[in-house]
Amino acid sequence: MLDAAALRSLADLDGPERAFLTIYLDAGDDPSVIDARATRVRALLSDQPAELEHFEESLAMAREMVESHTPTEGALAVFASWAADLRRAYALPEPVGTTLWMGDAPYLRPAAELLDEHETYAAVVLDNTKARIYLVSADEVDEEGRVRGDIKNRVKKGGWSQKRYARRRDKQLETYATELAADLVTLDAERPFARLVVVGSEEPARALAEALRQDLKDKLVGSRSVDGNASDAEALGVAADLAEQGEREAEQALWLAIREQGMGPGLAAFGATSVLEAVQQARAEAILVDREVEIDGTKCRACERVVHGTPETCQHCGSSDVFRVDLVEAITEQATRTGAEVDFADPFEALAGVGGVAALLRYSLSAGHAQREEREERERRARAPREAQADSSVEGNTAAAEPVAEPVAEPVAEPVAEPVAEPVA
To answer: Are the CB atoms for 37 and 30 separated by under 8 Å?
Structure first.
């Protein structure tokens, strides 16, 4: 199963040229569709013999994995590189769209979107007599524990006996909720979850919310009462709705935090150029991406610099040996390497208005530092063409000077050296 740890290890792999092949194959799709895409890639790499060789060798490796792991449900993700000796295949719980990709790194965006959309959450289904704790991930629902409640029903008797009964009942609720909260702490330490939802009777649910440790209170995204006769399957359906609602609310909360920083302290980046720069400097804490946005980028084979846009020469070193990349993919890979969170959101107007991508930053560069970096970058860009021209001039001058230097050195050195040496001897 492809999880966050596997995604991080794949994100650490990249190179100066297109040497990594990625295939996503949905269950039910004929593997022969890969052949049509492979034909197109061959045509596109016809002027890059080294990368074409990488492709053919990696494709042979990938075919073996597809043949032995053809998916019957969900999808299959295959990552292969002949140059890096990479062979990995992962089952995915849902279709992501069949595609073949040849790039400078494994293509992670479809897998990253899937993991973001199906983050693991804990669901507590409870009433007065018992509670069940479930851990729900993209491909499975595991029951992780049970706690007995045995909370007595309320009574309508009056007087001191009713007060004593109420105190005992409150104590039982507190004990029940405390034990359940402790089990959730243990579960989160052993198998971390992103969100917590509670479904069931209102009174014990309220007691549990009060008993939770603060970090788990922060993960609690919703609580809802259900009929006491509801099955666990029905309760888990309600829990899934709450978790999805929590995901949408988290996306909006991230946008609001980014927007507030953009209008205030400045710990925010908007648009592809600024977000790419922030993630390259490991300054990005969380990145919000329109899941439908497509942004072009360019990578230099000489210095491996990635930039926003499609320049014909490298803006860093001046080399013309560049190729196109998916900039959202490049941002996703770098974010995964540096531990930044990436949230893929359904399109909304405000995010589209800033280019479809924005980031919350860990720290900002000082004005002086930023100006210095900008000045150095301008100087670097100005020097690059001159240095390239100077290099070509030196090569030309060297080639012209060689035949002249040899005859001059030989006749002058030999006659002068001999007569001076003889009289002294």
So the answer is: no
